[in-house]
Amino acid sequence: EIVLTQSPASLSLSPGERATLSCRASQSVGSYLAWYQQKPGQAPRLLIYDASNRATGIPARFSGSESGTDFTLTISSLEPEDFAIYYCQQRSIRPPGLTFGGGTKVEIK
Amino acid sequence: EVQLVESGGNVVRPGGSLRLSCAASGFSFDDYAMSWVRQAPGKGLEWVSGINWDGRDTGYADSVKGRFTISRDSARNSLYLQMNSLRAEDTALYYCARAWVRYFDRGMDVWGQGTTVTVSS
After folding, report:
1. Cβ <8 Å between A45 and B111
2. How many CB atoms lie within 10 A of CB B54?
3. I want to staple B115 with a disulfide (CB 3.0 to 4.6 A). Which of A46, A81, A83, B6 is the partner?
């Protein structure tokens, strides 16, 4: 069973600052990692798929990268609408399925 | 407009059953895998179950295996989740979500607004 560990659990930053969110997988399953953003009372929104590809309509300030089993979501310059909870998600192979990380809350400082 | 609309959520007693439905519109339903994802109050996201584009392959989280069954009906452009032997820990907002490919084990690019299931005596 794959376990995704997100860090930090929360991040307090000001608009215009850079946010760096981490997601570590307990084992490697390739680059099949996605990032989602969720705001209060809303459904999740896909930001990044396959580790580094931006989903349709996602601003360029969002980027994803990977290094082995470590994945990073970077928001280059926080906008007021970016304060939310971010989840990473990875595929599992045996059995086939999906696993989510515990989330990182990005709060306004 | 691509849209997913869930229904069927309710209050049910422990041990009871419920069937969730998800009506899809605005895209070719047969071309995409689908999943159910839930979120307990104040908690994170948990993938529950997925089904490939043709309905031949399905997957379940260990927490629901043997109790929940996912299915799809291409004639009705609908996804279903039959939930049996419900437990208090199944209480959550249940989202229907579309994969961006034909296989459910990649992720979801379109989400509904969710339907609430409460298991309580």
Report:
1. yes
2. 12
3. B6
Quote the tokens at residue B34: 């689908």
Report residue B99 as tokens.
Answer: 């994969």
- The pLDDT of residue A73 is 98
Nearest Cα neighbor of B19 from B83, B69, B74 is B83
Measure CB to CB from residue A100 to each of B44, B109, B112 and give the nearest one. Answer: B44
Q: Which residue has the tokens 């298991």?
A: B119
H-helix or E-strand containing A20?
strand A19-25
Is the separation of the CB atoms in A85 and A105 below 8 Å?
yes
Write down the pLDDT at residue A30: 84
The string of pLDDT tens digits covering residues A37-90 is: 999 999 999 999 999 999 999 999 999 999 999 999 999 999 999 999 999 999
Residue of B93, B80, B84, B44 whose CA lies nearest to B64:
B84
Q: Is the separation of the CB atoms in A74 and A65 below 8 Å? A: yes
Q: Are A109 and A101 in contact (CB under 8 A)?
A: no
Tell me what percent of the residues of chain B surpass a pLDDT of 90: 98
Chain A residues lying within 8 Å of B61, measured CB to CB = 97
Q: What is the pLDDT of residue B30?
A: 96
Instruction: Determine the Cα angle at A27 with ends A22 and A31, to 5°.
Output: 65
The Cα angle at residue A101 between residues A85 and A48, in degrees rounded to 5: 65
